[in-house]
Design brief:
By secondary structure, this protein is mainly α. The chain contains twelve helices and three strands; from the N terminus they run αααααααβββααααα. A three-stranded antiparallel beta sheet has the order 1-2-3. Helix 2 crosses helix 4. The longest helix is centred in the N-terminal third of the chain and has 21 residues. The radius of gyration is 22 Å and the shape is elongated. It starts with a helix and ends with a helix. The relative contact order is 0.10. The C terminus is likely disordered.
């Protein structure tokens, strides 16, 4: 049943393989716990009290609030799947409260470090940093880009994000001019980067570590940097959400909150009184 659900998430809902597999792992953890701790571990027999016990067990295992909430989301989601399949099974997570999350500040890379990395590298690393640092797209979105995704006249790039939702973002003339020879060599066909996530992450990490001592040197840290910089420059939360492909605007709010925290720190640090 879990494998069928994973296949459904990927083929029908458009989830990425990584996200769907993460849901699958959480569900298998729950199933194993239920078999070991409940008299009746059938999906139809699970109650809210059972879910409460499971949450308590996760906390005892040292799971963070975000991890616990993800487990709950996975369980609740598969019950929604059961309903769509015609099974008359109540969702025991329906009224379950999620654990409160501690606000975290996104990891970013100093803009000057990113510029140095872009200017000091060559090959795939150079082109990847150029696109990521001007668009803020996700790594998988970058790897899915095809030459046909680019409108060379307007500098627009068509991106396919989570759930196969499409959006438009923009890069700079400089980045496109450097990509043009590669485009012509490939006759404008196929993907821009023919590699997988693991190799791409290594390429970027290896390039960034030579120019920055930031806490996290990853594609997502570049994305956080782009979003934070946009917020500091005055872009509103809706604009940032649309460019990043956030379906929930509250996901974007952290960049605005981070900017406000920076302003508060600056006012305190550079106060003349």
């Amino acid at each position: 049943m879990i494998q069928q659900y994973i296949d459904y998430l990927i083929s029908i809902r458009g989830y990425s393989n990584n996200t769907a597999k993460a849901y699958g792992r959480d569900l298998k953890t729950f199933v194993n716990w239920a078999k070991a701790n409940l008299h009746d571990a059938r999906w139809s027999a699970i109650t809210r009290d059972d879910i409460d016990r499971y949450i308590t067990w996760l906390v005892e295992q040292g799971k963070a609030p975000a991890s616990t909430n993800r487990h709950l989301s996975a369980i609740s989601s598969i019950y929604g799947y059961f309903k769509r399949q015609g099974y008359q099974i109540d969702n025991p997570c329906k009224f379950e409260s999620r654990r409160k999350l501690t606000k975290t500040i996104p990891n970013t890379i100093p803009i000057e470090d990113l510029r140095k990395a872009y200017q000091g590298t060559h090959g795939a690393a150079h082109y990847m940093i150029g696109i990521l640092a001007t668009t803020g797209i996700r790594l998988q979105e970058l790897l899915d880009l095809e030459w046909s995704s680019i409108d060379w006249e307007t500098r627009a790039i068509k991106v396919e994000g989570k759930g196969r939702k499409q959006r438009i973002t923009y890069t700079t003339t400089e980045v496109l001019e450097e990509l043009r020879p590669l485009h012509d060599y490939a006759n404008g066909k196929g993907r821009i980067f023919c590699t997988d996530q693991r190799h791409a992450r290594y390429i970027l990490w290896d390039a960034l570590r030579k120019y920055s001592c930031a806490k996290q040197l990853s594609p997502h840290a570049i994305r956080h940097t782009v979003a934070t910089n946009m917020a500091k420059q005055g872009a509103n939360v809706t604009t940032i959400a649309n460019l990043l492909g956030h379906s929930d605007i509250s996901t974007t709010q952290k960049y605005i909150d981070m900017t406000q925290a920076s302003i508060k720190d600056a006012c305190t640090q550079f106060s003349i009184i």
